[in-house]
Design goal:
heterodimer; A: 226 residues; alpha+beta; Glutamine Phosphoribosylpyrophosphate, subunit 1, domain 1; five-stranded antiparallel beta sheet; globular; B: 264 residues; eight-stranded antiparallel beta sheet; 7 helices; 36% helix
């Protein structure tokens, strides 16, 4: 009778983490950055139809990198959770912190109990109003949640992009400067990204109830050429 | 509440009412079997109109809700924005009507977010039709809800409007439509003043005038209330979306109408 091989739990977790990280590193990165009037979300995404960035609720946006079908499933779950909460209670009761916690639970559960971890990193961004601060929740494939900061970088090569963001960022950028800063950081020293390579959206306090707004390639090109 | 995640074969898709049913928050379970609402005297919302102009539609509704012979609410808003390019106006039992509008607006937004693109105008009208049909059991008990739906069709570049009956029947109108207790008077005013290719300004004036005449002849329709600063809700929907007129503008328009009536 054959005995099952013993594999140390440390090794199991490490293998899973490596697997997830590899999957995420294959995709292209995205950056979320605070600017004077809200939060700008800039992703490197040549597709015009398969989105990485989308709206969850009035002041909340979602962004995902990695495996498309997996983060899209999380996106739809977030929209449903937010709309249900807003319907049951009030629109004011829907907040990013609770969504981020629920996402973390799901990702953590899948990481430890399922056959394969999710190969995604996601971001839940909420723009503040009436003095409440902007928040950026960054959730990893294993359910780790990180928050705070003026910007967040998701995806492969995040460290180098973060370093470049650190250089370019200053408080109270305007939208154009924030998008340019994020684009420069994403492209790095060796290449140039143009509007068609990018997916850009913003959560702007100036937009009324639904703060989320996508920018067309023409809008992005105009912001990049200043 | 746990985040709702479904397996692909079991997914409720982009329908919010279906999602509510799936998690046991069914909004349409109003079991009135054997009950009667005869003595209930629930507030009723009254007159609303909608008409087409050259590049869009105008929607207008008075602000009064009545319970029998009493005014139960003076500031009710029966003309409500459904999404950026459409609006609903409702006459009938106020409670279910407001709940229906809330659910309808939410469904349009939910669909747009889940699918990544908005429903077509016809799709929105059809969706409302199903909601009115869902209310039929309650309508049989007297809780009738009859909406108007109007919006700007971005594909055809025209304003369009629909009226409904209690069974969810949906009828597209070419010129104008009026609903509620003062609809006979309001509708007649619009019928007489209607021309094809009205300007936005003229169409707004005509809608204001129709509600004035309805309020003049129907006790359940509220007129402009300068004392409290309550004016009808008047909104236009065109290529740039929903645009509600503010009270100062309406006050000026009603002042002009009052002047004309005085001069008669």
């Amino acid at each position: 009778m054959s005995m099952p091989f013993y594999v140390a739990p440390e090794q199991v977790m490490k293998d899973r983490a490596d697997y997830a990280r590899k999957g995420i590193a294959r995709g292209r990165a995205m950056v979320a950055v605070r600017y004077a009037d809200g939060i700008a979300l800039v992703a490197e995404n040549p597709s015009n139809t398969l989105r990485k960035i989308s709206e969850i609720y009035d002041r909340i946006a979602f962004a995902g990198v990695g495996k498309y079908n997996e983060f899209d499933q999380l996106r739809v779950a977030g929209v449903r959770a937010a709309d249900l909460k807003g319907f049951q209670y009030s629109r004011d009761d829907v907040d990013a912190r609770s969504l981020a916690n629920q996402y973390a639970q799901i990702l953590g559960q899948v990481f430890t109990h399922e056959m394969k971890p999710m190969e995604v990193e996601i971001l839940v961004a909420e723009v503040g109003h009436d003095g409440s601060p902007d928040v950026l929740f960054h959730i990893l494939y294993d359910g780790t949640v990180m928050d705070g900061g003026n910007f967040r970088v998701l995806g492969g090569d995040a460290e180098a992009i973060s370093a470049r963001m650190e250089e370019g960022f200053s408080a109270d950028l305007d939208l154009g400067a924030a998008v340019r800063c994020a684009t420069t950081a994403l492209s790095g020293p060796d290449r140039t990204l143009v509007a068609e390579d990018l997916e850009v959206a913003m959560l702007s306090r100036a937009n009324g109830r639904r703060c989320f707004q996508r920018l067309s390639d023409a809008d992005v090109a105009a912001l990049l050429t200043v | 509440m746990a985040m709702p995640i479904f397996t692909p074969g079991d997914d409720p898709g982009s329908s919010f009412p279906e999602l509510l049913r799936r998690i046991g928050l069914n909004p349409t379970t109003v079991d009135l079997a054997g009950a009667t609402t005869q003595g209930l005297n629930v507030p009723h919302a009254t007159t609303c109109v909608a008409l087409r102009y050259a590049d869009g539609v105008v929607m207008a509704g008075d602000r009064r809700a009545t319970s029998g012979n009493l005014i139960s609410h003076r500031g009710m808003e029966k003309v409500v924005q459904a999404d950026r390019y459409s609006g609903v106006a409702i006459a009938g039992a106020a409670g279910p009507a407001m709940e229906m509008i809330k659910l309808f607006a939410l469904q349009l937004e939910h669909y747009e977010k889940v699918e990544g693109s908005a429903l077509s105008l016809e799709g929105k009208a059809n969706q409302l039709s199903m909601m009115v049909r869902g209310n039929l059991p309650a309508a049989m008990q007297g809780m009738v809800v009859v909406p108007l739906f109007a919006g700007y069709d971005l594909r055809r570049k025209v304003g369009r409007l629909w009226s409904y009956d209690v069974t969810g029947g949906r009828y597209e109108e070419r010129e104008y439509v009026a609903t509620g207790s003062g609809s006979l008077h309001a509708g007649t005013v619009i019928k007489v003043g209607y021309r094809e290719d009205l300007s936005r300004d003229d169409a707004v004036n005509l809608a204001c005038r129709s509600l004035w005449e309805a309020a003049d002849a129907d006790s359940a329709t509220g007129g402009p209330d300068a004392l409290r600063g309550i004016y009808p809700v008047v909104a236009t929907i065109g290529e740039s979306g929903w645009n509600r007129l503010d009270d100062t503008e309406l006050a000026a328009r009603y002042e002009t109408i009052a002047g004309e009536v005085r001069a008669r």
